Structure to design on (669 residues):
């Protein structure tokens, strides 16, 4: 009875604050601490409202809600001085719109649920996860500020949630001073544009609207344009030899090859400086360059500034002599920052690449050199060149170079999501973008690696690069997105142990006779799920983009008169709102939906290879509550194995003639 009364009290209090503060979600948690000075009630919300005893979730006092148990002694600092007391009660709640969706009470007779449900949805269809942060997630979010966070986690375990909330926590002013992290100096790197669009809509509530969030190639292209004095054209033609070129450009040996290439440039630079400075009797400027430390371009800039200052103080011929020295250093900087033109020189240097690229056959090096010559002749760069351009830039400048101002900059913090799909060169570039390894948050899941030509360096190597041991790599094992039956299917696919989790309906594979029956089955599924749930976001997954686009048109045409919006989801065109999104499998990384229907899960779409298995695992684990697979073709071998294992229910969706009643069937028996 006490728990019921407490639940009603929490709901009433939340309603009162919604009215007073004119907001749908003023707070999502409340706890009471019995101190020597009397009881203290604290509410935890998305922001501070001290006059209503509401603290921001990032405030130190909120730890009592996220990571303490009833009966434990806790410390509160929100009243200007530390107060200790016993935690008497705590409650979490999820609000949806202006309605309280659920209240979870934590007390002596109300234990913490072991399998929380899915996050409540905002009107935009996005999950509101603050009320569902687990103690393990909270501890990772609020980990020490002077160490990096490297996080592995299974699908749906909250990896990206932890990463973004950690950056938000690092940017919070707190009770002791200004914000240690400037959100405008944060870079969040996502796997694809669909995931970028999804995560971008979550940033404002976390106070991170000024952070830069982009794909690697989207961000890299802008960084390269800022460093170039001429237009940057992207070569995106289909061309022979690309696969060999990718193997060369993404090989881990390219890191040492670039270092050797730049070292050779620096030797030639010094010879050039000595030759020209000697002519004007300015060898002391060369000595100043030799004495400077750090990457070569900042050293040149430092000596250039000193030389300009000396020129401005000098008179007569000394001033003229130093003016020539200024011009020499300006030209040296110009020559050392022609990053776009250096990539073809690097890739056409067969002897250098053969020396540093172990395991790459000579014919791949030759093929790459020939292809790069074609790209260079078109005065362009391929997407595969972006990481090399940036690596050259970072090797020589120590940061991101702006050609107009000459400034060299770094980010204050970087988040790398889905790290398993980045190659060693891309990862090296990203890790150099911050002042220290402590300014990095990396998350990923090797089971969801879907880019075959990205040779992931491994968690042990990442830990080594960041200066931490393997034990510092954290693990999130509990999935909070999908039901236990869905995760049992996913785990069975990957050969993982059976998971814990909340109960739900069993995934199904439905075999139909033709395309028309497939369409009818999808329409029936979508209508049923739309009627069952409040504001669901459903997803139909096809093997290829063109198939998804065509199916979206057919579904949209059939549902025109109904209040169920149908959208084609591709790259930036994704809209994360209630309705039905039709897309292809490779767009789904990191996204989540209330229900997912997978069309034609055949061997062609999901072959019995490690890559096919990981792609199917990624698709399956996008579903929160409902997973349907259906097709005209027989299920692929991966699907058949899971049907045989009992993780997937197989049934026929073949056409059945409706019953026909006669006139006498209208009469009573």
């Amino acid at each position: 009875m006490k728990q019921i009364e407490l639940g009603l009290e929490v709901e009433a209090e939340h309603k009162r604050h919604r009215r007073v503060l004119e907001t749908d979600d003023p707070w999502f948690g409340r706890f009471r601490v019995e101190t020597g000075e009397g009881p203290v009630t604290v509410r935890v919300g998305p922001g501070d409202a001290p006059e209503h005893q509401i603290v921001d979730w990032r405030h130190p006092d909120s730890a009592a809600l996220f990571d303490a148990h009833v009966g434990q002694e806790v410390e509160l600092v929100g009243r200007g001085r530390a107060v200790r007391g016993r935690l008497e009660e705590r409650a979490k709640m999820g609000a949806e719109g202006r309605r309280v969706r659920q209240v979870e009470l934590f007390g002596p007779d109300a234990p913490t649920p072991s399998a929380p449900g899915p996050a409540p949805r905002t009107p935009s269809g996005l999950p509101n996860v603050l009320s569902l942060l687990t103690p393990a997630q909270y501890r990772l979010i609020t980990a020490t500020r002077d160490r990096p966070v490297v996080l592995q986690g299974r699908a749906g375990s909250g990896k990206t949630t932890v990463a973004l909330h950690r950056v938000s926590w690092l940017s919070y002013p707190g009770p002791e001073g200004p914000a240690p992290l400037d959100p405008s100096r944060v870079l969040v790197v996502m796997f694809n544009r669909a995931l970028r669009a999804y995560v971008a809509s979550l940033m404002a509530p976390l106070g991170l609207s000024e952070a830069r969030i982009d794909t690697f190639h989207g961000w890299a292209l802008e960084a390269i344009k800022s460093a170039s004095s001429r237009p940057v054209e992207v070569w995106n033609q289909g061309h022979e030899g690309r696969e060999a070129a990718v193997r060369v450009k993404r090989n881990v040996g390219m890191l040492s090859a670039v270092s050797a290439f730049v070292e050779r440039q620096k030797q030639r630079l010094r010879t050039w400086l000595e030759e020209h400075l000697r002519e004007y009797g300015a060898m002391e400027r060369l000595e100043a360059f030799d004495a400077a430390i750090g990457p070569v371009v900042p050293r040149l800039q430092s000596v250039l500034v000193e030389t300009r200052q000396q020129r401005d103080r000098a008179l007569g011929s000394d001033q003229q002599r130093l003016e020539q020295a200024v011009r020499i250093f300006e030209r040296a900087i110009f020559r050392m920052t022609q990053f776009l033109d250096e990539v073809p020189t690097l890739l056409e240097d067969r002897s250098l690449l053969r020396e540093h690229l172990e395991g790459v056959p000579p014919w791949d090096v030759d093929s790459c050199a020939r292809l790069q010559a074609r790209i260079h002749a078109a005065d362009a760069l391929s997407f595969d060149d972006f990481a090399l351009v940036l690596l050259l830039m970072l090797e020589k400048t120590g940061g991101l170079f702006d050609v107009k101002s000459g400034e060299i900059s770094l980010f204050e913090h970087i988040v790398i999501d889905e790290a398993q799909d980045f190659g060693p060169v891309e990862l090296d570039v990203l890790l150099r973008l911050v002042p220290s390894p402590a300014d990095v948050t990396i998350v990923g899941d090797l089971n969801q690696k879907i880019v075959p030509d990205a040779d992931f360096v491994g968690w042990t190597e990442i830990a080594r690069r960041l200066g931490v041991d393997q034990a510092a790599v954290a693990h999130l094992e509990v999935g909070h997105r999908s039901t236990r039956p869905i995760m049992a299917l996913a785990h069975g696919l990957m050969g993982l142990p059976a998971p814990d989790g909340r109960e739900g309906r069993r995934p199904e594979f439905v075999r139909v006779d033709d395309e028309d029956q497939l369409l009818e089955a999808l329409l029936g599924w979508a209508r049923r799920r739309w009627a069952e749930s409040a504001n669901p976001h459903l997803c139909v997954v096809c093997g290829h983009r063109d198939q998804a686009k065509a199916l979206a048109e057919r579904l949209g045409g059939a549902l025109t008169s109904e209040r169920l919006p149908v959208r084609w989801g591709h790259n930036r065109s994704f809209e994360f709102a209630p309705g039905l999104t039709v897309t292809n499998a490779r767009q789904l990384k990191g996204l989540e939906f209330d229900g997912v229907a997978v069309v034609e899960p055949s061997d062609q779409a999901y072959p019995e290879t490690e890559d096919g298995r990981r792609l199917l695992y990624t698709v399956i684990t996008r579903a929160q509550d409902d997973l349907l697979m259906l097709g005209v073709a027989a299920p692929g071998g991966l699907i058949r194995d899971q049907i045989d294992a009992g993780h997937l229910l197989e049934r026929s969706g073949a056409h059945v003639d409706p019953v026909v009643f006669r006139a006498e069937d209208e009469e009573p028996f």
About this structure: Confidence is low (pLDDT under 50) at residues 109-117, 119-126. Residues 254-279 form the longest helix (26 residues).
